TrEMBL record:
GO terms for molecular function: structural constituent of postsynaptic intermediate filament cytoskeleton. This is INA. It comes from the Eukaryota. Keywords: Coiled coil, Intermediate filament.
Amino acid sequence: MGTSHGSGTPPHKSLPNQTILGEGLIRQAVHDEEVAELLATLQASSQAAAEVDVTVAKPDLSSALREIRAQYESLAAKNLQSAEEWYKSKFANLNEQAARSTEAIRASREEIHEYRRQLQARTIEIEGLRGANESLERQILELEERHSAEVASYQDNIGQLENDLRNTKSEMARHLREYQDLLNVKMALDIEIAAYSKLSMN
């Protein structure tokens, strides 16, 4: 009876108020029950008294009243005992529900704490991985830029070497032609000298 979890108020805050409200309802129910039974008893007694013969002696009326009072006191004592037992049972149930609610709240808090701890650990891990990823991306970008610069430098060097090679080939061809021309001149001179020598000997 008492601990509704759909009201939007945490159970550990609303439980004392609900317990007090339950106690008040129990007491009101017991009081209403006692009043109803007392009225029923008085009504029955009134009917019994109306049916008594008017010729009954006065001591008999006093005896009847004492008997009615004794019955009422016995009934009131029985009702009081029943009410106390009912109240104790309901109060024990409320205490048991409160204990279960408290345990459930404690378990929920521990679970929430564990989830928060895991979330914090995962967040730290993700931040670390994000930082490492950003560092790797910067390193890759730097390597790409350095590689591009080195490739451009190598291409410039290759172009320069190819140009030097062409110039060297052209220079060697020119020297080879000059050497061939000189060799031809030398051969012509050698032939001419040989001819003069032969003529001189004759």
